[in-house]
User: Fold these one by one.
Assistant:
Number 1:
Amino acid sequence: MNQHKTKELKAVNVISNELLTDDVHYISVDKPFDFKAGQVIAVAMQPTDEPRLYSIASGISKKHLSILFDVKPEGELTPPLSVVKPGDTIYISEPFGKFLCLDSPATWIATGTGIAPFISLVESKQANNVNLLHGARTLDKFFFQDYLEEQLGNNYQRFCTTEASEKTTEGRLTSYLKNSENLPTNNKYYLCGSSQMVIDVREILIAKGVAFDNIIAEIYF
Ligand SMILES: Cc1cc2nc3c(=O)[nH]c(=O)nc-3n(C[C@H](O)[C@H](O)[C@H](O)COP(=O)(O)OP(=O)(O)OC[C@H]3O[C@@H](n4cnc5c(N)ncnc54)[C@H](O)[C@@H]3O)c2cc1C
């Protein structure tokens, strides 16, 4: 996929590569620049490769910069990226992007690794007056859930489609939204995840009376 050919890439040192579940990694690298919570970087194994984009998944004041990604077995970047070790070099662009989620009150909605920018925002202490809804297929895919719960309390809600637990609501996040009687229509809604999730959620929100302009999406195509 031709995602980001024009950005100049800079060599950075890998600090750690943490396997969070079977196919999801949290990789930290040296931080060569400042960024705004919610921004993305382009990432490549070699400076001549066509990079892929990743939301920054760490706070602005952290020593290192981290990304969260799932491995696409047939993908070009994520299989080699999943086996990098501390001390290896990868290539990243300067941060860019406008998914800064500055307005509140807001509802943040994420599926799977789409939680990444919201982790950055929470770690950057930019999560006032927000409600975070996170959907995942299995219980092990609520990345950083303990931290998010600690920081957001009841304003962090988990929706799990295939497993049950006392901390999660069973079923799809979209079903919850559809069945909600009083979704705040003046909130900003920030959506992050797959294109299908964004399409489905946007349709539901608009049907519930949320203005199109109040729905801002970062799509992981
Ligand atoms: C703004 C933005 C932010 C993003 N942030 C994140 C993030 O934080 N975390 C994250 O995990 N992802 C994120 N993504 C997605 C990410 O950029 C990559 O697309 C993803 O990680 C896959 O990269 P890859 O090189 O491994 O796969 P690719 O090589 O790009 O392949 C993508 C998919 O296409 C399939 N495929 C490849 N070649 C073929 C072919 N010839 N025929 C059929 N199928 C094929 C692969 O099986 C794979 O499933 C983001 C995307 C965008 C646009």
Number 2:
Amino acid sequence: MSIMDVTMTDRCLVCEKNLWEPIYKVLLRCRSCGFITSNLDISEEELETIYNHNYFHGREYGNYIADKRIIQKNFMSRLNILLKYVNNSQKKSIFEIGSAYGFFLELANNYFKSVSGIDISADAINYIQTNYPWIHANRGEYSDYNIEQRHDIYCLWDTIEHIKRPDIYIDKIARDINADGLIALTTGDIESLNAKIQRNRWRLIHPPTHLHYFSKKTIEILLNRYGFEILYSSYASSYMSLNHIFYITLVVNKKMPQIYEILRKLHITNFSVRVNMHDVMYIIARKKN
Ligand SMILES: [Zn+2]
């Protein structure tokens, strides 16, 4: 992975200006709109390599599939909010970008006419095709995806910060979406109080998986640019399994796997807690006609 001097070459993907200043170690801040991005030049092949089996089993998640119950608890609370903005969901189709192992689409299938999704991870898409054959799952980059049909709702759960060019994705969604369609997304808020206090130690700063860092202001500018108006904007609470918390703190960060193993054997890791650190934005926006 090479570090590229984007200060000279790349325009801000939110406001299209070219006025960068360095912030923290590998991040740049747009002096015009405040958008923050990593100055990593990373190829699509490198991204595909990042999101292999190990990403979901050990590297970023302890074990994504084992945490299914808690992951779906979180998706259900997001889905309940989304459903308030959808009339006649049984007649609508939903498409998820970054669908991972299909845990959201499995739930959404109970409320929508059709569910489909795309993910760059071959491992994740294979899992969906084996376990949920009724989900239309596609492997690849959404920006390269030739649509078979338009959809009413596009979801990006904690995904937009991973994408190399979110502006291209939002532009494509704006062209692929049905009239009055919705985008629902979650992503970290780098202007949140917690992010400002934690600075470069904020838990959501980790390039190269998190390439971009939005705020309520910059995500709104980007969505407005492609004709979306924000209907709902809040901070998402989430259930966290103690397994995930202990895994991150003891194994990934502190390198104390022996203590993690003891807690796991005592079944302490089986519980979950609901937290809202007010630093993950939940945005729902509608395409203006
Ligand atoms: Zn900008």
